[in-house]
Amino acid sequence: MSRSVVILGTQWGDEGKGKIVDLLARDVDAVVRYQGGHNAGHTLVINGEKTVLHVIPSGVLTERARCLVGNGVVVAPQALMKEVEGLEARGIEVRSRLGLSPACPAILPFHEAMDRAREAARGSRAIGTTGRGIGPAYEDKIVRHGLRLADLADPQRLKDKLESVVDYYNFLLVNYYKAEAVVLQAVADEAARLGEILKPMFTDVTGDLHDLRAAGGKILFEGAQGSLLDIDHGTYPFVTSSNTTVGGVLTGAGVGPRDIDYVLGITKAYTTRVGGGPFPTELDDADGRMMAERGVEFGATTGRPRRCGWLDAVAMKRMARVNGVTGLCITKLDVLDTFEQVKICTAYEGVDYFPVGAEEWQSVRPVYETLPGWKSQTKGLTDVGGLPSAARAYLDRLEELIGVPVHMLSTGPERDANVILQHPFSG
Ligand code: GDP
Ligand code: IMO
Ligand code: MG
């Protein structure tokens, strides 16, 4: 029986990860975020009430699961506390259930300023980041001058480290980007205030996970973004700054490969992308508009419209391999209910090997296979028997092309709109 399951997106994010994490979190002891930051927007809909989570793990609306934030997550203290307070205002107990690794890199105001200044300087080549300071915060971690949450909770350490980092950022912001400087004292005071508030939530996330595993507990790892946004395996440089693929679990939570029993690949029945960058199956026609409209495709974090297109089985097969995906969860199947025909990209022309970066991706010409649409309602479906035969044929073909079985379907935004063919924790 699986006791440790990873949920990650196989496309460019917004596949519906949050909804599935919330659903499966009902039976687990801990839900763990391991990479990304508040660039994520994970939507949960329970009895018609919508909740969008950014850093707090999507297990927070269940009774039992502890919500852990591993060392691989970049944490903006102010944004995190806003999220905590928003939930508390609805009567949800958060602080006693939330555990933060003190090793998480802190996102501070100058990271956000730098993210925005860089994007502005890139002009038409902008990545279309969420403007949350994600890239600069990870950059500081790798350069080894970043501050961690632990530093915020220690006034002397905070002061020592912050002075030189702020000096460095202000030099770049003012002289190179012609942007405004940040004020050291204001940043320091706010960071110290937030450090005090966060300190009681510090825990040894890695140690806790190993103890839980030894005690036979169930763990759910919650990925953010999607595999094609991975810093190494994605459409570089139009990617995010973390490893969104499965390796991120090991480094971002401190577990070993044998601590993962099952990987659930969340895959939208079509494809969306928000921000710039290559997207071979993107549509600029009535089908694309129908996907956007029926799927309500607007970013959960920034509200930007999402670009839409057909499912790309070539990229999905690659991402299934990169992640060692055990089973697929196909989400938003209901969005395709009204289509006369559905298409799948089955091959790439114009490239000899899987594209390594944006330039190679630009040469890809997708080859499509067309299947009949089912033209009947799957919305809200919970029973596999009710699946129209054309929808079944579409899913069978996806399994064949991607090389991984479909274990779950999501048929609506509501928590219980799912068909479970094989439960990830049962295998
Ligand atoms: P995440 O970032 O992967 O958690 O996904 P988002 O929450 O950003 O985007 C998914 C959107 O689709 C949200 O608005 C969900 O409420 C919605 N959603 C999730 N699953 C389904 C589904 O099966 N059908 C439909 N129609 N909407 C869904
Ligand atoms: P969830 O977890 C979709 C995209 C941004 C941009 C690129 C880099 O909700 O699936 P960043 O701010 O990370 O430096 O931006 O990555 N991006 C996402 N797209 N869903 C997300 O998260 C995303 N997080 C970042 O739009 O193209
Ligand atoms: Mg999202």
Characterise the protein shown here.
Strands 6-5-2-7-1-8-12-15-16 form a nine-stranded mixed beta sheet, with helices on both faces. Strands 11-13-14 form a three-stranded mixed beta sheet. It has a two-stranded antiparallel sheet with strand order 3-4. The radius of gyration is 21 Å and the shape is globular. A hairpin with a 2-residue loop joins strand 3 and strand 4. Helix 3 crosses helix 4 and helix 6 crosses helix 7. Helices cover 33% and strands 19% of the residues. The model has no long low-confidence stretch (mean pLDDT 97). The chain contains 13 helices and 16 strands. With 427 residues, it is an alpha/beta fold. Bound molecules: guanosine-5'-diphosphate (GDP), 6-O-phosphoryl inosine monophosphate and magnesium ion. 6-O-phosphoryl inosine monophosphate is lined by residues 9, 12-14, 39-42, 127-130, 132, 134-135, 224-226, 229, 240-241, 274-275, 300.
